[in-house]
Structures are given as C-alpha cells and as structure tokens.
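Minimal example, chain plus manganese (II) ion.
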Amino acid sequence: MEFARENILRLEALLQASERPCIVSHPRPDGDAAGSSLALASYLLARGKKPQVLLPDPLPSNLTFLEGAGQAAVFSDDERAVRKALETCDLLLCLDFNCLSRLENLGPAVRECPAPRILIDHHLFPERESFALVFSETQVSSASELLFYILKALPSVGGDIAALPAACRTALLTGMTSDTNNFANSVFPSTFAMASELIASGVDRDDILDRLYRDFKESRLRAMSEILLRELEITPQGAAFFIIRKELWDRYGLQDGDLEGLVNIPLSIGKVRLSASFRESPDGIYRVSLRSKKGVSANRIAREWFHGGGHEQASGGKLLIGQDVPSRGDVAAYVRKALCNL
Ligand code: 5GP
Ligand code: MN
C-alpha cells in the first residue's frame, strides 16, 4: 500500500510533537475498533507518549483480552474521565469511523476539542473537512490493516514490523480477523500479506481465534438458535431478516457484542442475497445490521432506509419508532418494504 510521502511525514511530525494523544473509535466498538485503537495506543506508549483510548461504549467481553483494554475511558460509563482526557489532549487520532456524527453522544465533545484530528479509516465517504490529515482507503479489509501499513511506512518504524510491541501486533491481527469475519469478507492480497508478516513475527493466531470465537457463554448460542428458529423471515426477493426483541435479549442476559456474527448466518442459504438484523433497544431505536452478497448493496439500503451507512457488503444503521414507523408493531412491514428492491 502506497501513501503520499508528505502525509506520512506530516503524521510522523504530529506524533513526534504530541505528548498526550487521544485515540477515539465508534459506538458499540467491534474487534476492528478495539484492535486498531489499542494497537495504536501500545505503539504510542512504546514511543514514550501518554496515549488515552476513548470509547463511546464498553468493549464486549471477547475483546477485553487485548492489552490496554482496561485503561480505555468509556463515555457511557464515565463521561467526566473522557471529557477530562479531551481537555488535555494535544492530538486526536480517529479510527474506524468516517464522520464525527457516527460518534453519537461523544461527537460534540470531540468536535469541541481543539487538538488536530487525524482520520485513519476504511469506510466510504470520509468527512475530510473535519480532519487535519486523512488516511482513508476503502480497498482494505479494516482500519487495523490500514494502520498496519501506516505504521510500517513511518520512518521511525523503518518497515520493521517485528520492532512493534507484541501487544500492538496482536491487536492488529485481532482487528483484521474480526472485521473480515476470519478471512471471509473484504479480504485483499494486502490482507494476507499483513497476516503473513504478523504471524511470522510471532503473533499467536490460534490464541486470537480462541479469544474471539471460542469463549462465549452457552446462553449466546441458545439465544441465536431461538432467533433463527422463531424470528427468521425470508422474503420472495431473497432478503432474510429477523427482529431481536428486548424481551429475548433480557431473558438470555445478552450484552453488546454477544450476537456479533449472527446476521451472517442467513447468507449461508443459496437464495438469500441480503441478511438484516433488527435489535430492539429500550429507547425506541432498532439497531440495524445489514450484510449482502456481491451484486447487492447493503450500503444503499442502510443509507436509503435506515439512516446509516458502512461498506458495500456490510452496513448498519437504525430504525426509529415515532419517525420511520408509528409503533413497534409496524416494524416488520417497514422492513419488508425496505428489502423488496435489492
Ligand atoms: P455492524 O452491522 O457490524 O454494526 O456494522 C457494519 C458496518 O456498518 C460497520 O462498518 C459500521 O461502521 C457501519 N455502521 C454500523 N452502524 C452504522 C450507522 O448507524 N451509521 C453508519 N454510517 N454506519 C454504520
Ligand atoms: Mn472496521
């Protein structure tokens, strides 16, 4: 991956001048948000900086193994700590999201922070005007992959990946593995090259797979089974969707991140070209996840029907009671309409 030399030198200078950089990622952080943020934090720590990771929401339990996860300041848990970090911060590194409104409640505080903002992201349509420096590539698997190649290009790293801290390398491979759903989606030649270099440098991929995919509680799988059995609907146009009711969520004691990956499963059916998940939350908002096969744009449907966006084949958004539909009972009909033209 080639970067403009001036951008790399500018980044190097901004990092060098910073003492207290903050790293920000998106709400309901996933493996790529966590992996890229914590990788950058551990690199900056080894460089003698005092980095602080700021997250809108807590990490799901399967990501807390990453080094530094416990030190992240979480806006929904401790708003004061996050605001305080933003007051003293001298550089803001924004990872795995493309515009400040994506940060939801944390957005205004980040916008008010006077430190220069750097974007490192792989989503479509980056909000360039909000950033002093932009690294935006959509032909990469993940923000973690993009960060890997940026770190490699920094003169201070000199292309020597093995010189990065072990925690940084582990977090990078974790982020990429998670965003590609273990090499299933959005994989490029550069993605395999990155994995190959990291594994050759000693990163334990088997351990990452154990942590990411083989350490959940039983109730998660039982909840998934019930949803697929009772809630899955497939439209004549080849769209699959299911609604995750709050009642079911509470009954199984689920937490954010527990049903990560469930939306991919209906794509295993030959005739299904798009799969959508709608998670009911107490505030009258349904969280929407969309996945599609090549030739169908999950991104278009997220933008046109669900106030969202993301990638061509993996997008998200929301459905609002009182705005999009009058009541909860109208959600399924709205979804059928949204998914009738793939
Ligand atoms: P997920 O379904 O895993 O939550 O999200 C899939 C993709 O869609 C991610 O790349 C994520 O950044 C993006 N995404 C999720 N929710 C939203 C949203 O509300 N707005 C936008 N613009 N993108 C979203
Ligand atoms: Mn990502």
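The first helix runs from residue 5 to 17. The mean pLDDT is 97.
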